[in-house]
Amino acid sequence: MEQLAQQYIDATNVTPRWLPGGDAFWYKQNISPSKYQFLFVDVRGKSRELAFDHKQLAEALREKTNEEVDQYSLSFNWFEPVPDESCIRFRFGNRKWQFGPNNLLQEWEGQFTTEPDHLLQKEVISAHSDTQVTVDFVNRTGKTLRVYWIDWKAKAVPYMSIKNGETKRQITYVGHVWRLVDVSNEKYRAVYSAPDEGNHVAVIEHLSDSILEASPPSDDEDSETDEEPTEPENGPCLYIKEFNVWFKSENDEAFQLSENGNEKSPYDKRHLYISPDKQHAVAWQYTSGQDHKISLVESSPEDQIEPKLHTKSYLKPGDRVRIDRPRLFDLKSHSEVATDDSLFKNPYQVSNLEWNRNTQEYLFYVNERGHQHTRVIGIKVGGSVRTLVEEESRTFVDYTKSYFKLLRDSDELIWASERDGYNHLYLIDLVTGSVKNQITEGSWMVNFVEFVDKDCRRIWMRGYGLKDSEDPYHAHLVSVNFDGSDFKTLTDGDGTHSWSLSPDKRYLIDTWSRVDCPPTTVLRDSESGQEIMTLEKVESKELEDKGWSSPERFASPGRDGKTLVYGIIIRPVDFDSTKKYPVFDEIYAGPHNFRVPKAFSTLSDRRRWADEGYIVVIIDGMGTNWRNKGFHEICYKNLDDSGLPDHIAWLKAAASSRPWMDLSRVGIMGVSAGGQNAVAGMLHHSDFFKAGIADSGCHDNRMDKLWWNELWMGYPVDEAYEKASNITHAKKLKGPLMLIVGDLDDNVDPSSTFQMANALNKAGKNYEFLFIPGGGHGCGGGKYGLARQRDFFKRHLQQKSEYRVDMNRYSPLPSLISSLPLCLVFFFSLLLYRFFLSSSSHRRLKMKISYLSVGLLALFSPLAAAWSKEDREIFRIRDEISKYETDPAANFYDILGVPPSASLDDITKAYRKQTRNLHPDKVRQAMRSKAAKDKKAGTKTKPPTNAEIKAAVKKAGEAQARLSLIANILRGPERDRYDHFLSNGFPLWKGTDYYYNRYRPGLGTVLVGLFLVVGGGFHYLTLYMSWKRQKEFVERYIKFARDTAWGGGLNIPGVDAAPAPAPAASPVPASDEEEAPPLPQNRRERRMQEKAAKRDGARPAKKTRRAAQVSSGTATPTPAAGPTGARKRVVAENGKILVVDSLGDVYLEGEDEEGEVHEFLLDPNELAKPTIKDTAVFRAPIFLFNVTAGRFLSKKPTDLEIEIPAEDDDSDVPQPTPSTDSAGEDFELLDKSTDSLTKAKASGASQGKANKRKGKKR
């Protein structure tokens, strides 16, 4: 589709080559790609025919040169018709040829008279000139061209790109040289030199690979130097010598006119103006602007490994600009005439208008810094200064629209002004300084003055909005007399028009089209606008038959509900109205122009995005240019608005009748100022725009070029710059964002994007950052950058990918102590979980306890959370204020002495004032002055000592540091955070990280603290819970045995039990004489028993019976006693044999390594309750002492040894504390519900019988 559009664009392009006389021209007609022919147009005869016999010429060239020649691809693009001789002349190869008369081809040796000029075969540096020229560059090369201006040092300065078929206008100066290169291969280029004053069309059709670049001038040739020439001109003249202006008379006498010139404020040799009567002169004295350079680091140069540093002069808003001061001199008295400069004291730009007709007044134009006043000022020879015409605005005077033309012969001036809300022309009387008449008027805009005919007193100009029935951005050519009469619209056709005038301005070639209508080119009379003939035309139906899909034009009211906002909609090539598509909003709300294409074009980049499955829209919201003053002024000090409310209103209106537009998936993308707009959309309208890409964006207007930003944001730099900055609002990001930047962007400082990334980092935002080494402005449009952009939007607009914008606000804790509370809460919750589950009676609470643990974690985890770094800084300074300042309750604003509503300027002024008072010299002086005053007053006070002064200086230094931090917070994005705390209260808990950084204990303190907390408190908690669990386990074991053997204990002598229902019948247990075979103890039980025996110096005692029992732990061997009275054996579910005697005592049978059976009394009261002395806090030092110094010291008991007394005096056996592992093991074995243990009663008794032992050994 792109190739189809380009084919018809080329077919309708007409670049006329006018013949002398101005009544005929020829042009190259493009038939199809790579095929063309030449047509000749006779304007008077209204004829259009082949310029020559192409077939005959091709055959003749083939015969003469032995080369293959196609009649539709002749290898020349220019020829010179000679109607009088019925022939044409041209270049073919390296020779000149003549074809005709009678189709005769022969070589020719003459000189061409109409060969195109201004296209240079060799590049040179630009000439110095103040004469303005307008050039329309027309690209007919089939390539995309990049345009560079060649400056006075032969440096190529990039300006713009021109796509094939496009026309772009450049305002330049006579003698300025422009290089146009193929972006895909910069070896191919064309070089153009701007001609004399006026408007010109430069059609670039061919590129050459043999044009060398200009060489920089040598030191003595440098035309940019301000050194005066060695010899002044012949005759009366002004010249510069030693920074001052001198005058050489007709007698060659030299007179010094000025004496105030110096190196910093010299006179400019290019601005010396002698009055026509040679009686007076004006010379400009100037002060140079600030030398502000930006540094660009080329990270990956192709010719070396190490990075390269590039610097560029780059003034930013608020920088000092060059100040020109015109001064008047009397050439008779050779002295300066005093003048008042109050009307031009702070200029941004001064332009010369020359002397008036009677040579009694010098005229010049001044654009005042801040762009709210522009004036034409007159300095009379007597020294009086007056304003002849002035334009002023409470917002801005858009000087890009400025037009002033001096009509010297009539002492008049044509002046452009938006004073009535639209840009129009006025005729000014320079004698009286008043408006003679308004030349143009109406609700339309004068865009550009094509030319002025002073003799006929008529003007031709381009206008926007001339026809109510059309798009207000459609351009038309109009003409009008100086007095406003005989207004004519010279172009016709519902579309935007472009034209070229014949050299004598009698005819014009008019081409018009719309985005949805292919071009038509006609020839018109430039006086009446009457159409003479149609030159080229394409019917829309012809395009549609070949599959062309036109963009859709759409207009809808903007934010105010009444002002129409215009845009276009581009659908995918395979568009299906039954589907829903995400929307891609390409934005560029740069206030200097409008964005939406109006002419027919390929829209290649936009169509590629559409074919990826998007509905692509381009919209011009309020704040863009060329509608009216009110529409435009929305941008003033408000660039973050970006027309976004109008984009949203327009999209909602469009989607209301187009169900295939899915407004739940709207992406926004822009380059340069459009990058700033795209990020603003993501920050301020995150509920509408779901993903955004910013390529080479200007995210803070203080970081961008001076001229562009001060025009819309004003001067001096104020808080509006900060408010409009994307960086200020980085914390508002809620959706996916991609930032793209290259390290060699010399249009918008790359640091603007870096600072945006830094702000997003500080705000804890998730975003994607694409850095392109070697990339210039708009580098995201390259192959790799576009691939990344496509992937980004695909993930976030076409696929359901999850994207977390807000990163974890909790900062990484700097040490173990910072995360300790969270760890402890988690550990404590686990212990609670295990503790509750240890009781079988709570089995049904398992799920509830799990929820309890999670709930405790959720409840206590925030205690360990830290605030952001900026928040902690605010907390710290606030604590210092309450500790050191006179008023502990003072807030940051009180410290600076400003109200909370103070502006940035107020805060800065207050900070500077307080800083001066805290300077060490000021502090010393104040102390000594106070002492001196006290002495004069008779007060007996000692003068301050050096120590006291030193202490005061130190205190002031601390206050100064604190003041600096406070000022930085209140001047930065952290101010919003502080204001939030100030209005809502400061948190009581500031996070463990804050306290750690605030008090920061040493490593030893941290280790000791950890040892005391973990080895003391938590170790004790672990021991206690383990003891509790074992005790419950033994009690449960005993209860099970009693219930199984005696039915709940009701029939056990000596055991009181509450009445209970009779237990279920159970098998009769074995008799006393029958001993059930005991099960062996497990390894851990045997190990514990052996250790106990070794400590007593005896083997475990064999089983005997006695009435009394001694308990020692969970299952302690009883050497002298056993079950008393009747006994019943019970087999637990885990196979353990339990013996219950008539007293209700429960014994556990077990076997040692030799096979002997023992009975162990189960008594929960014998489990030793842990104390703090059992923890690692006490045991670890004792252990370390015993394995070190204790080996060499006496074995006598010491105070360090801990004696653990037994609860029963008749026990000789030490009571080991059961390990957590063994308790857990038994717990796992017996972790059955009471019901399951009951079910095991019968099986336990029967198993006891089945396992009757046959002897004491197995």
TrEMBL record:
Question: Where is each J domain found?
Answer: 891-982
- Superkingdom per UniProt: Eukaryota
Spell out the Basic and acidic residues composition-biased ranges: 1087-1099
Which residue windows are transmembrane per the record? 816-837, 849-867, 1002-1021
Mention one GO biological process in which this protein takes part, according to its record: proteolysis
Recite the UniProt keywords alphabetically.
Aminopeptidase, Glycoprotein, Hydrolase, Membrane, Protease, Serine protease, Transmembrane, Transmembrane helix
Outline the segment boundaries, as ranges, of region: Disordered. Answer: 212-236, 1057-1128, 1203-1258
Q: Which reaction does it catalyse?
A: Release of an N-terminal dipeptide, Xaa-Yaa-|-Zaa-, from a polypeptide, preferentially when Yaa is Pro, provided Zaa is neither Pro nor hydroxyproline
Q: What class of enzyme is it?
A: hydrolase
- Sorted alphabetically, which InterPro entries does this protein's record hold? AB_hydrolase_fold, DnaJ_domain, J_dom_sf, Peptidase_S9_cat, Peptidase_S9B_N, Serine_Prot_S9B/DPPIV, VHL_beta_dom, VHL_sf
Bias class Acidic residues marks the residues at: 218-231, 1203-1212
Give GO terms: molecular function aspect only.
aminopeptidase activity; dipeptidyl-peptidase activity; serine-type peptidase activity
Q: What is its EC number?
A: 3.4.14.5
- Family membership, please give it: Belongs to the peptidase S9B family.
User: What is this protein's record name?
Assistant: Probable dipeptidyl-aminopeptidase B
- Source organism (scientific name): Gibberella intermedia (Bulb rot disease fungus)
